[in-house]
């Protein structure tokens, strides 16, 4: 099985492009979180300059915008590695070896949960349930869900990522 | 051959997570190579996940299933004549006759896996829209009354009667009302909302329109967790179809009702599944709990009267209206009426969806449907109702699934997730995890939840390393009581439930024997 979908392509940050994203949400009710998700989908992360733009466009204080950005675990203020690997630590995955999977993932990707490896090819994160509990242990690579994971298959995934990013 | 043979390969993200896309490609290639005309249908999943990827072929006798199929099996399947339903090592016979499926009573999941989830024709051919059509010929009061009479209670966890909630919103006076579908499905061990959104999204749309008509709301939001990208894109496609077909928009099916529907994505916060935090998040703020009252039914989204319902609560309504409330209320036991879409997972031989009436025992679900542990080791416990639910020991698997029976056993049915553990599970670690989860996911508003959970992890660590076990267990119990008494919402208030269930049922795993300090420590 192919583990990887097409690697994500993000636009590089520009305030003009950011303002365009904001404009797309004109007329929506309570759009801040939608815009933040959209900015992250466009640029891969929320650039620090976005805070002031959003505050101005939405008539909020910068503190309010910043407060929202920091509340949600998915929202990042730094660009992630080439692939975002999320490992499920929910109970169903625990019952079939998630702890071991986390350990081997940290080994093969050479980074800790919550950080990016030195080549910046992988950002490793924990997640609590991916809705794939019937096929635990589960992980997600960018937006691709992978079930029936094992320590062997994590190593295969690492090889595949190495192949793509070499 | 000129006739076109229908072959089904699920598009459900779980099926795809174990290679369904590769199989679809392999089947198309083989068919092309052999110059056989097939129609490849990407259906929803039947919910028998140990058999995924499950491939079906339509034969004169009915749909014949094969699974679990790998891409390497495809050539052999063609060679042995699977397109005529012939025998093969992976043959499972007629899909509908597989005991796991045949023993269920699918109501909400009746269409699951039958067809392409975005095919309007298939939706209508299989009973879709009949609930909405019924609703359009009823008064608002009668719709609400039917929902009340059906006895359905909230499937999101709290079990509040759906009809009563709708009545409150209907009676609220306001120029604007909303319907919000809670599709945050944060509970580990649950995946029915995801399957429904991916596998029968038109049903959720139909249900939300009905809810809007019933209470007088003209705008709806579906709040989906960000971990479900496929559900989000499928819903968006389904909503576009809803507008094209005039289900949504200015004039619902040509009536004078209007209804607009939007999908919103969360951004990774379990607490946003709590309804008031979800409303905050929908308004673009931090997902911090609001104090109740006012109830969302009175002051919800943007302070307007709002129906907040779980995906499964809403999705049951079209059948209730199409077939009458008695059809639904006749199923179930005591005050738990109708069916529940149970979600089996964890260390289980046959994990999957089991929709049956309430009253079924845990034993039937775990051992008969689930086939016992996947590891072939003895089953030790099941956590029911998500991360805030109790661990129930196998000696208590005669418990019947019923809100009140579970509450009396210090447990909860919740969203219907059942996670099975074998005898290698370390229940002390599971108790610790409950506290850790709360410390990560707390919204931070109340001290007992925010700080108590961090202390809880520390105290359990001390217990597990054998330090002052007796004193620390007492401390843990006090801490749990403080969290129960001093938390604004069920995050802090229920986190003690799994912890105390371990203390009650597995005291030796927190250093106690018969509830007392182990003599040797
Ligand atoms: C911490 C917490 C998380 C919750 N998560 C969800 C969830 O993911 N989905 C859901 O439908 N309800 C969830 N609920 C329950 C909701 O607050 C609310 O009761 C429900 O959405 C009401 O809909 P229902 O009556 O149809 O169940 C959660 C509650 C709490 C306290
Ligand atoms: S109990 Fe926890 S999650 Fe709930 S309001 Fe208090 S701090 Fe927030
Ligand atoms: S607990 Fe891991 S996918 Fe649900």
In DSSP terms, counting alpha (H) and pi (I) runs of 4 or more, how many helices of chain A?
A: 7
CATH topology-level fold name of the largest domain in chain B: Rossmann fold
Number of helices of chain B: 21
The count of domains of chain B is 4
How would you describe the overall organization of this protein?
The complex is a heterodimer of chains A (166) and B (521). By secondary structure, chain A is α+β, with helices and mostly antiparallel strands. Chain A has helices spanning 15-24, 32-43, 48-58, 62-71, 91-94, 98-108, 151-165, and strands at residues 83-88, 115-116, 122-127, 139-141, 144-146. Chain A has a five-stranded mixed beta sheet with strand order 2-3-1-4-5, with helices on one face. The model of chain A has no long low-confidence stretch (mean pLDDT 95). Chain B folds into four domains: 5-101, 3-Layer(aba) Sandwich (Glutaredoxin), CATH 3.40.30; 120-328, NADH-ubiquinone oxidoreductase 51kDa subunit (Rossmann fold); 339-422, Ubiquitin-like (UB roll); 427-517, NADH-ubiquinone oxidoreductase 51kDa subunit, iron-sulphur binding domain (de novo design (two linked rop proteins), Up-down Bundle), CATH 1.20.1440.230. Chain B contains 21 helices and 18 strands. Chain B has helices spanning 13-16, 20-33, 74-79, 99-102, 120-125, 130-136, 140-150, 162-171, 192-199, 201-215, 229-244, 275-282, 311-323, 325-329, 362-369, 403-408, 427-441, 447-464, 469-486, 490-494, 496-505; strands spanning 5-8, 38-41, 55-59, 62-66, 91-94, 178-183, 219-224, 260-265, 306-310, 332-333, 336-337, 339-346, 352-357, 379-384, 391-393, 417-422, 512-513, 516-517. The mean pLDDT of chain B is 96. Bound molecules: flavin mononucleotide, iron/sulfur cluster and FE2/S2 (inorganic) cluster (FES). Iron/sulfur cluster binds at residues 271, 289, 442-446, 449-450, 487-489, 491-492 of chain B.
């Amino acid at each position: 099985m192919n583990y990887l979908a097409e690697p994500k392509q993000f636009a590089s940050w520009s305030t003009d492009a950011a303002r365009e994203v904001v404009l797309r949400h004109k007329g929506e009710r309570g759009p801040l979180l939608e815009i933040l998700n959209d900015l992250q989908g466009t640029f891969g992360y929320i650039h620090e300059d976005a805070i002031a733009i959003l505050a101005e466009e939405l008539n909020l204080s910068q503190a309010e915008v910043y407060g929202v950005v920091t509340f949600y675990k998915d929202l990042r203020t730094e660009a992630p590695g080439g692939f975002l690997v999320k490992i499920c630590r929910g109970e169903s995955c625990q019952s079939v070896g998630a702890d071991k999977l986390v350990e081997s993932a940290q080994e093969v990707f050479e980074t800790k949960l919550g950080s990016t490896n030195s080549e910046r090819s992988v950002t490793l994160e924990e997640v609590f349930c991916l809705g794939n509990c019937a096929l635990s242990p589960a992980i997600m690579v960018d937006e691709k869900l992978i079930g029936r994971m094992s320590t062997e298959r994590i190593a295969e995934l690492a090889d595949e990522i190495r192949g793509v990013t070499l | 051959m000129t006739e076109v043979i229908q072959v089904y390969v699920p598009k459900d993200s779980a099926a795809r997570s174990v290679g369904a896309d590769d199989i679809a490609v392999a089947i198309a290639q083989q068919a092309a190579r052999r110059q056989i005309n097939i129609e490849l249908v990407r259906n929803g999943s039947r919910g028998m996940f140990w058999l995924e990827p499950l491939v079906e072929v339509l034969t004169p006798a009915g749909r014949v299933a094969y699974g679990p199929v790998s891409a390497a099996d495809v050539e052999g399947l063609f060679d042995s004549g699977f397109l005529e339903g012939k025998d093969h090592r992976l043959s499972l016979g007629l899909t509908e006759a597989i005991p796991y499926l045949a023993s269920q009573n699918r109501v909400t999941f009746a269409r699951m896996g039958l067809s392409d989830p975005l095919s309007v024709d298939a939706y209508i051919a299989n009973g879709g829209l009949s609930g909405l059509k019924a609703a359009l010929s009823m008064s608002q009061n009668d719709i609400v009354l039917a929902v009340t009479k059906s006895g359905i209670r909230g499937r999101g966890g709290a079990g509040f009667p759906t009809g009563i909630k709708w009545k409150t919103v209907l009676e609220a006076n306001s120029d604007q009302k909303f319907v919000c579908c809670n599709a945050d499905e944060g509970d580990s061990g649950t995946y029915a909302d995801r399957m429904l959104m991916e596998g029968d999204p038109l049903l959720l749309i139909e249900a939300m329109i009905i809810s809007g008509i019933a209470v007088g709301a003209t705008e709806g939001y579906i709040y989906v967790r960000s971990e479900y990208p496929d559900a989000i894109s499928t819903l968006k496609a389904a909503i576009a179809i809803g507008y094209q077909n005039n289900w949504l928009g200015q004039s619902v099916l040509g009536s004078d009702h209007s209804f607009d529907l939007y999908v919103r994505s969360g951004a990774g916060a379990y607490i946003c599944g709590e309804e008031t935090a979800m409303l905050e998040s929908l308004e673009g703020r931090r997902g911090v709990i609001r104090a109740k009252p006012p109830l969302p039914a009175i002051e919800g989204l943007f302070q307007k009267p709002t129906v907040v319902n779980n995906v499964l609560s809403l999705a049951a309504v079209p059948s209730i209206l199409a077939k009458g409330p008695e059809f639904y209320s006749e199923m179930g036991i005591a005050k738990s009426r109708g069916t529940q879409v149970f979600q089996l997972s964890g260390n289980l031989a046959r994990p999957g969806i089991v929709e049956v009436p309430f009253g079924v025992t845990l034993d039937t679900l775990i051992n008969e449907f689930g086939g016992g542990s996947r590891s072939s080791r003895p089953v030790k416990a099941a956590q029911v109702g998500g991360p805030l639910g109790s661990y129930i020991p196998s000696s208590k698997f005669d418990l019947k699934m019923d809100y009140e029976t579970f509450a009396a056993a210090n447990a909860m049915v919740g969203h219907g997730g059942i996670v099975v553990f074998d005898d290698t599970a370390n229940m002390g670690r599971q108790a610790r995890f409950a506290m850790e989860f709360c410390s990560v996911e707390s919204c931070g508003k109340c001290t007992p939840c925010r700080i108590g959970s961090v202390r809880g992890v520390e105290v359990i660590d001390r217990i597990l390393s054998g330090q002052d076990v007796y004193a620390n267990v007492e401390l843990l119990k006090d801490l749990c009581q403080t969290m129960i008494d001093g938390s604004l919402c069920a995050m802090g208030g229920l986190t003690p439930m799994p912890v105390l269930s371990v203390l009650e049922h597995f005291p030796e795993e927190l250093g106690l024997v018969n509830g007392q300090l182990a003599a040797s420590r």
